[in-house]
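Structure first, sequence second, as always.
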Protein backbone atom coordinates (compact mmCIF):
# COMPACT_ATOMS: atom_id res chain seq x y z
CA UNK A 1 0.00 0.00 0.00
CA UNK A 2 1.55 3.32 -1.08
CA UNK A 3 1.81 6.25 1.29
CA UNK A 4 0.53 9.76 0.47
CA UNK A 5 3.18 12.04 -1.04
CA UNK A 6 5.44 13.55 1.58
CA UNK A 7 4.39 11.13 4.35
CA UNK A 8 7.11 8.93 5.83
CA UNK A 9 6.97 5.72 7.83
CA UNK A 10 7.59 6.26 11.53
CA UNK A 11 10.22 3.69 12.63
CA UNK A 12 9.02 3.95 16.23
CA UNK A 13 5.47 3.10 15.20
CA UNK A 14 6.77 0.12 13.24
CA UNK A 15 8.72 -1.13 16.24
CA UNK A 16 5.72 -0.69 18.52
CA UNK A 17 3.50 -2.63 16.12
CA UNK A 18 6.06 -5.42 15.82
CA UNK A 19 6.39 -5.65 19.60
CA UNK A 20 2.61 -5.77 20.03
CA UNK A 21 2.33 -8.56 17.45
CA UNK A 22 5.12 -10.51 19.14
CA UNK A 23 3.45 -10.14 22.54
CA UNK A 24 0.12 -11.29 21.09
CA UNK A 25 1.75 -14.33 19.51
CA UNK A 26 3.51 -15.21 22.77
CA UNK A 27 0.30 -14.94 24.78
CA UNK A 28 -1.59 -17.04 22.23
CA UNK A 29 1.13 -19.69 22.29
CA UNK A 30 1.04 -19.79 26.09
CA UNK A 31 -2.73 -20.32 26.00
CA UNK A 32 -2.42 -23.12 23.44
CA UNK A 33 0.32 -24.75 25.50
CA UNK A 34 -1.91 -24.70 28.59
CA UNK A 35 -4.75 -26.24 26.60
CA UNK A 36 -2.42 -28.98 25.33
CA UNK A 37 -1.57 -29.82 28.91
CA UNK A 38 -5.24 -29.73 29.90
CA UNK A 39 -6.18 -32.15 27.12
CA UNK A 40 -3.37 -34.53 28.10
CA UNK A 41 -4.46 -34.42 31.74
CA UNK A 42 -8.07 -35.06 30.70
CA UNK A 43 -6.96 -38.06 28.64
CA UNK A 44 -5.15 -39.49 31.68
CA UNK A 45 -8.17 -39.02 33.93
CA UNK A 46 -10.52 -40.69 31.45
CA UNK A 47 -8.11 -43.60 31.23
CA UNK A 48 -8.14 -43.87 35.03
CA UNK A 49 -11.95 -43.87 34.97
CA UNK A 50 -12.08 -46.61 32.34
CA UNK A 51 -9.61 -48.65 34.39
CA UNK A 52 -11.86 -48.34 37.42
CA UNK A 53 -9.44 -46.09 39.36
CA UNK A 54 -11.95 -43.21 39.46
CA UNK A 55 -15.64 -43.45 40.32
CA UNK A 56 -16.95 -40.80 37.94
CA UNK A 57 -15.74 -39.47 34.58
CA UNK A 58 -14.16 -35.98 34.50
CA UNK A 59 -17.22 -34.49 32.80
CA UNK A 60 -16.89 -31.02 34.35
CA UNK A 61 -13.28 -30.56 33.24
CA UNK A 62 -14.22 -32.01 29.85
CA UNK A 63 -16.83 -29.27 29.31
CA UNK A 64 -14.45 -26.57 30.55
CA UNK A 65 -11.66 -27.59 28.19
CA UNK A 66 -14.06 -27.90 25.26
CA UNK A 67 -15.34 -24.37 25.97
CA UNK A 68 -11.81 -22.98 26.16
CA UNK A 69 -10.96 -24.55 22.82
CA UNK A 70 -14.08 -23.16 21.17
CA UNK A 71 -13.41 -19.67 22.53
CA UNK A 72 -9.80 -19.68 21.41
CA UNK A 73 -10.72 -20.91 17.94
CA UNK A 74 -13.35 -18.18 17.72
CA UNK A 75 -10.64 -15.61 18.42
CA UNK A 76 -8.04 -17.10 16.09
CA UNK A 77 -4.42 -16.14 16.89
CA UNK A 78 -2.68 -13.99 14.29
CA UNK A 79 0.46 -16.13 14.25
CA UNK A 80 0.27 -18.83 11.57
CA UNK A 81 2.38 -21.36 13.57
CA UNK A 82 0.13 -20.87 16.61
CA UNK A 83 -3.01 -21.29 14.49
CA UNK A 84 -1.61 -24.52 13.08
CA UNK A 85 -0.78 -25.77 16.55
CA UNK A 86 -4.27 -24.89 17.78
CA UNK A 87 -5.87 -26.70 14.85
CA UNK A 88 -3.73 -29.77 15.53
CA UNK A 89 -4.78 -29.72 19.17
CA UNK A 90 -8.44 -29.33 18.21
CA UNK A 91 -8.27 -32.32 15.86
CA UNK A 92 -6.62 -34.40 18.57
CA UNK A 93 -9.27 -33.39 21.11
CA UNK A 94 -12.04 -34.41 18.69
CA UNK A 95 -10.36 -37.79 18.20
CA UNK A 96 -10.24 -38.27 21.98
CA UNK A 97 -13.90 -37.31 22.30
CA UNK A 98 -14.91 -39.90 19.70
CA UNK A 99 -12.93 -42.55 21.55
CA UNK A 100 -14.36 -41.60 24.96
CA UNK A 101 -17.92 -41.58 23.59
CA UNK A 102 -17.42 -45.01 22.04
CA UNK A 103 -16.04 -46.48 25.28
CA UNK A 104 -18.87 -44.94 27.32
CA UNK A 105 -21.43 -46.51 24.98
CA UNK A 106 -19.69 -49.87 25.20
CA UNK A 107 -19.70 -49.69 29.00
CA UNK A 108 -23.43 -48.88 29.00
CA UNK A 109 -24.13 -51.74 26.58
CA UNK A 110 -21.95 -54.16 28.52
CA UNK A 111 -19.61 -54.76 25.57
CA UNK A 112 -16.49 -52.91 26.74
CA UNK A 113 -13.57 -55.29 26.29
CA UNK A 114 -11.93 -54.53 29.64
CA UNK A 115 -15.16 -55.11 31.53
CA UNK A 116 -15.69 -58.35 29.63
CA UNK A 117 -12.18 -59.48 30.48
CA UNK A 118 -12.79 -58.77 34.17
CA UNK A 119 -15.99 -60.80 34.02
CA UNK A 120 -14.15 -63.70 32.36
CA UNK A 121 -11.47 -63.54 35.03
CA UNK A 122 -14.06 -63.65 37.82
CA UNK A 123 -15.77 -66.64 36.17
CA UNK A 124 -12.44 -68.37 35.81
CA UNK A 125 -11.69 -67.80 39.50
CA UNK A 126 -15.09 -69.22 40.41
CA UNK A 127 -14.86 -72.09 37.92
CA UNK A 128 -11.29 -73.31 37.24
CA UNK A 129 -12.58 -75.49 34.39
CA UNK A 130 -12.86 -72.46 32.09
CA UNK A 131 -10.71 -73.27 29.10
CA UNK A 132 -7.35 -71.54 28.71
CA UNK A 133 -8.07 -71.24 25.01
CA UNK A 134 -11.02 -68.95 25.69
CA UNK A 135 -8.89 -66.72 27.89
CA UNK A 136 -6.18 -66.55 25.23
CA UNK A 137 -8.71 -65.54 22.58
CA UNK A 138 -10.08 -62.81 24.83
CA UNK A 139 -6.55 -61.54 25.42
CA UNK A 140 -5.95 -61.19 21.67
CA UNK A 141 -9.21 -59.27 21.27
CA UNK A 142 -8.28 -56.94 24.12
CA UNK A 143 -4.88 -56.23 22.59
CA UNK A 144 -6.50 -55.31 19.27
CA UNK A 145 -9.07 -53.07 20.96
CA UNK A 146 -6.35 -51.33 23.01
CA UNK A 147 -4.42 -50.59 19.83
CA UNK A 148 -7.50 -49.03 18.22
CA UNK A 149 -8.29 -47.00 21.32
CA UNK A 150 -4.74 -45.66 21.55
CA UNK A 151 -4.49 -44.60 17.91
CA UNK A 152 -6.01 -41.09 18.33
CA UNK A 153 -3.31 -40.23 20.85
CA UNK A 154 -0.36 -40.73 18.50
CA UNK A 155 2.53 -38.33 19.14
CA UNK A 156 2.24 -36.87 15.62
CA UNK A 157 -0.61 -34.68 16.85
CA UNK A 158 1.55 -33.21 19.62
CA UNK A 159 4.17 -30.69 18.44
CA UNK A 160 7.63 -30.78 19.97
CA UNK A 161 7.80 -27.12 20.95
CA UNK A 162 6.50 -25.83 24.25
CA UNK A 163 3.61 -27.36 26.09
CA UNK A 164 2.01 -27.18 29.35
CA UNK A 165 0.65 -29.48 31.87
CA UNK A 166 -2.84 -29.69 33.00
CA UNK A 167 -4.92 -27.14 34.62
CA UNK A 168 -7.11 -30.03 35.73
CA UNK A 169 -5.08 -32.00 38.25
CA UNK A 170 -8.09 -32.60 40.45
CA UNK A 171 -9.35 -31.81 43.93
CA UNK A 172 -7.87 -33.43 47.02
CA UNK A 173 -9.76 -33.80 50.33
CA UNK A 174 -7.98 -32.22 53.31
CA UNK A 175 -4.56 -32.49 51.70
CA UNK A 176 -4.71 -36.26 51.24
CA UNK A 177 -3.94 -36.94 47.60
CA UNK A 178 -4.17 -40.44 46.16
CA UNK A 179 -1.32 -41.98 44.22
CA UNK A 180 -3.55 -42.12 41.14
CA UNK A 181 -4.28 -38.40 41.26
CA UNK A 182 -0.62 -37.56 41.91
CA UNK A 183 0.38 -39.80 39.02
CA UNK A 184 -1.94 -37.86 36.71
CA UNK A 185 -0.37 -34.58 37.84
CA UNK A 186 3.12 -36.01 37.47
CA UNK A 187 2.46 -37.32 33.95
CA UNK A 188 1.05 -33.96 32.91
CA UNK A 189 4.02 -32.12 34.43
CA UNK A 190 6.54 -34.33 32.64
CA UNK A 191 4.73 -33.86 29.33
CA UNK A 192 4.59 -30.10 29.83
CA UNK A 193 8.28 -29.83 30.71
CA UNK A 194 9.25 -31.84 27.65
CA UNK A 195 7.17 -29.66 25.38
CA UNK A 196 8.74 -26.60 27.00
CA UNK A 197 12.19 -28.03 26.29
CA UNK A 198 13.01 -28.56 29.98
CA UNK A 199 15.18 -31.34 31.35
CA UNK A 200 13.14 -33.97 33.23
CA UNK A 201 15.96 -36.29 34.32
CA UNK A 202 15.84 -35.12 37.93
CA UNK A 203 12.03 -35.21 38.14
CA UNK A 204 10.65 -38.36 39.75
CA UNK A 205 7.15 -39.34 40.81
CA UNK A 206 8.31 -40.16 44.33
CA UNK A 207 10.03 -36.79 44.74
CA UNK A 208 7.01 -34.85 43.48
CA UNK A 209 4.56 -36.85 45.60
CA UNK A 210 6.66 -36.38 48.76
CA UNK A 211 6.98 -32.65 48.17
CA UNK A 212 3.27 -32.09 47.50
CA UNK A 213 2.12 -34.22 50.42
CA UNK A 214 4.41 -32.32 52.79
CA UNK A 215 3.27 -28.89 51.56
CA UNK A 216 -0.49 -29.35 51.13
CA UNK A 217 -1.49 -29.63 54.83
CA UNK A 218 0.28 -26.36 55.64
CA UNK A 219 -1.32 -24.67 52.62
CA UNK A 220 -4.80 -25.83 53.65
CA UNK A 221 -4.29 -24.66 57.22
CA UNK A 222 -2.93 -21.26 56.14
CA UNK A 223 -5.93 -20.57 53.91
CA UNK A 224 -8.48 -22.38 56.12
CA UNK A 225 -9.44 -24.44 53.05
CA UNK A 226 -11.03 -27.88 52.92
CA UNK A 227 -9.47 -29.03 49.66
CA UNK A 228 -6.94 -28.01 47.05
CA UNK A 229 -6.90 -28.17 43.28
CA UNK A 230 -3.62 -29.12 41.62
CA UNK A 231 -2.83 -27.60 38.25
CA UNK A 232 0.19 -27.70 36.01
CA UNK A 233 0.80 -24.27 34.55
CA UNK A 234 3.40 -22.55 32.39
CA UNK A 235 5.09 -19.50 33.85
CA UNK A 236 8.05 -17.80 32.28
CA UNK A 237 8.42 -20.65 29.81
CA UNK A 238 8.67 -23.24 32.60
CA UNK A 239 6.13 -25.85 33.69
CA UNK A 240 5.25 -26.13 37.36
CA UNK A 241 2.54 -27.42 39.68
CA UNK A 242 0.23 -24.81 41.17
CA UNK A 243 -1.90 -25.62 44.22
CA UNK A 244 -5.15 -23.64 44.54
CA UNK A 245 -6.96 -23.81 47.92
CA UNK A 246 -10.72 -24.31 47.70
Amino acid sequence: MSLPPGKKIDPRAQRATAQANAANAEESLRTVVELEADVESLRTRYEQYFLGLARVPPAEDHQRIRGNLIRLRGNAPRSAPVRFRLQTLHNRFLAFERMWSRVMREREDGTYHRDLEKARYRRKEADPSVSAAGASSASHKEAGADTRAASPATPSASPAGAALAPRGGGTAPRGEVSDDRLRAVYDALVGAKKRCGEDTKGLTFEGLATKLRSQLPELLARHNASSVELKVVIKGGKAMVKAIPK
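Margin note: Residues 135-173 have pLDDT under 50 and may be disordered.
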